[in-house]
């Protein structure tokens, strides 16, 4: 992830309700959740939730798919892992281990950060 991708993602997560939605969707895993369940669990009114989901989707942090007549929201784990790698890119040099979420196994895997070329 480049800084021009990280800024919108961080801005989207910098709002209390969007962060709560994102964290709930992380917990839901690949199955995701329909908006009605998200609104009920977080006690958000539907128009407010729609706005926050749109902001998270625009930032690339969530995805939406159709399941029959329902919309299901899930976390974009590639974007989330990319953001975590971006944030820890300069941590401890090459010895740092970057957390990577793999929702299929519902575990966090620690991977060694790959050093990126630094601009001259």
What does the model show?
By secondary structure, the chain is α+β, with helices and mostly antiparallel strands. It has two domains: 3-76, Winged helix-like DNA-binding domain superfamily/Winged helix DNA-binding domain (Arc Repressor Mutant, subunit A, Orthogonal Bundle); 79-112, no CATH class. The chain is 47% helix and 20% strand. The protein is built from five helices and four strands, in the order ααααββαββ. The chain has helices at 3-13, 16-28, 35-42, 46-58, 77-87, and strands at residues 62-67, 70-75, 97-102, 107-112. The strands form two sheets. It has a two-stranded antiparallel ribbon with strand order 1-2. A hairpin with a 4-residue loop joins strand 3 (97-102) and strand 4. Helix 1 (3-13) packs antiparallel against helix 4 (46-58) and helix 2 (16-28) packs across helix 4 (46-58). The longest helix is centred in the first third of the chain and has 13 residues, at 16-28. The chain is elongated and about 45 Å long. The two termini are 19 Å apart. Mean pLDDT is 84; it is low at 106-110 and 115-120.
Head-to-tail CA distance between termini: 19 Å
Helix content, binned percent: 40-55%
> Helical segment tally?
5
What is the CATH H-level superfamily of the largest domain? Winged helix-like DNA-binding domain superfamily/Winged helix DNA-binding domain
For this structure, what is the CATH class of the largest domain? Mainly Alpha
How are the strands ordered across the major sheet?
1-2
* CATH architecture descriptor of the largest domain: Orthogonal Bundle
């Amino acid at each position: 992830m480049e800084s021009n991708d990280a800024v919108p993602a961080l801005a989207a997560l910098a709002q209390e309700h969007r962060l709560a939605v994102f964290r709930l969707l992380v917990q839901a895993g690949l199955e995701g959740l329909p908006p009605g369940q998200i609104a009920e669990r977080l006690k958000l009114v539907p128009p407010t939730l729609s706005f926050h989901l749109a902001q998270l989707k625009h930032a690339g942090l969530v995805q939406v798919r159709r399941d029959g007549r329902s919309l299901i929201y899930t976390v974009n784990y590639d974007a989330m892992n990319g953001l975590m790698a971006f944030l820890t890119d300069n941590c401890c040099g090459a010895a740092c281990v970057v957390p990577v979420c793999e929702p299929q196994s519902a575990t966090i895997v620690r991977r060694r950060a790959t050093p990126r070329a630094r601009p001259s």
